[in-house]
Design brief:
The protein is α+β, with helices and mostly antiparallel strands. The chain folds into 4 domains: 64 residues, no CATH class; 47 residues, no CATH class; 77 residues, SH3 type barrels, CATH 2.30.30.100; 78 residues, Alpha-Beta Plaits (2-Layer Sandwich), CATH 3.30.70. The chain is 34% helix and 27% strand. The strands form 3 sheets. It has a 5-stranded antiparallel β-sheet with strand order 7-6-5-4-8, covered by helices on one side. Strands 10-11-9-12 form a 4-stranded antiparallel β-sheet. Strands 1-3-2 form a 3-stranded antiparallel β-sheet. A hairpin with a 4-residue loop joins strand 6 and strand 7. Helix 4 packs antiparallel against helix 5. It is globular. The two termini are 34 Å apart.
Length: 312
């Protein structure tokens, strides 16, 4: 699938019949692969990091895929590194011996000499790999806090504010939703109930305070991540040159979209914090115009200037 991406990322997109011919697949197979492509991207796999595509007539257009815009070319050193790491994970039992990773490593081995493969395999056999789920590490302490009714002190990365803060929280329960574990707790810093994604917790320890009172009366959210902007939210208005801005509408239930005759769209939404949105909009380059607010324009401009300064 990722081999197809470079052929579809240009302004003209790619012809569906030509893609089927080049890669030896039927149209149904191609469309099935494209639907999986929606779930491909870069960590941390938030909406702004996932690939998007659209079909117009017999052509397909891919966006949000700049990282995959050129065919992958591994150096010999990179191929050896991947081979050793993959073999070590298979030897440790993290992946099956006859599975997708093993098949991929066979292809990598094809680019190496026989001596290099033997040497890399010997190195991999001497590596011990200890797999520990990031979430599970914190769940042990959190579950102890729940059982003993004790407060927790956590260092938490707020994606919306792009900052790490220490918080004391009274834990209610653990929730699983949309592929992630969340801690539902009363946050003393916010003075309100909050959801904390476990893979964004940098550290956690048991606090000295005991959680008082009956915790059975809290409301479990019907949808983790459900958003209510509140009165102090910024009113945001964005003009996208193409339809790729629809991804923002799909991920942000409170947003609304207006289509224009020239193919562009206007997206309007409300958010209490602009930091996450400025990071998201950087990926669109000059394909998005920020009509309001001025604070968002300044944020995006400032971050773009910082990035250019780093490259220069």
């Amino acid at each position: 699938m990722l081999l197809m991406v470079p052929f579809m990322t240009g302004d003209e997109g790619a012809s569906i019949p030509e893609l089927c011919r080049r890669f030896g697949v039927s149209k149904d197979e191609l469309m099935a692969d494209l639907n999986v492509l929606w779930m491909c991207g870069l960590p941390d796999y938030t909406p702004g990091r996932l690939i998007d595509f659209r079909v117009e007539g017999d052509r397909v257009f891919v966006s949000m895929a700049d990282y995959f815009a050129r065919p992958l070319r591994l150096t010999r050193e990179e191929a050896l590194t991947i081979f050793v790491a993959g073999r070590a994970l298979i030897t440790a039992g993290a992946f099956p011996r006859k599975g997708p990773l093993s098949m991929a490593l066979e292809k990598v081995a094809g680019a190496l000499s026989e001596g290099e493969v033997d040497s890399a395999s010997a190195i991999a056999s001497r590596i011990d790999v200890e797999m520990e789920s990031y979430s599970s590490k914190w769940r042990t302490i959190i579950e102890k806090g729940l059982k003993e009714k004790r407060a927790l002190v956590i260092e938490y990365y707020s994606y919306s504010r792009d900052e790490v803060k220490e918080r004391e929280v009274d834990p209610y329960t653990l929730l699983w939703s949309h592929g992630h574990w969340y801690l539902l707790a009363y946050c003393h810093l916010a003075e309100d109930d909050r959801l904390f994604r476990l893979d964004r917790i940098k550290s956690v320890e048991l606090g000295a305070a005991r959680v008082e009172g009956d915790r059975d009366g809290f409301m479990v959210p019907a949808l983790v991540g459900e958003y209510r902007p509140g009165r102090k939210a910024h009113q945001v208005k964005l003009r996208f040159a193409g339809a790729e801005g629809r991804r923002l509408v799909e991920e942000w239930p409170a947003a609304k979209v207006t289509e224009h005759d020239d193919g562009s769209i206007t997206v309007e939404l409300r958010t209490r914090n602009l930091s996450w949105l400025s990071n998201y909009l950087l990926r669109f380059g000059d394909r998005v115009k920020i009509e309001s607010p001025k604070e968002l324009r300044r944020l995006v401009s400032g971050k773009a200037s910082e990035m250019l300064a780093m490259y220069s």
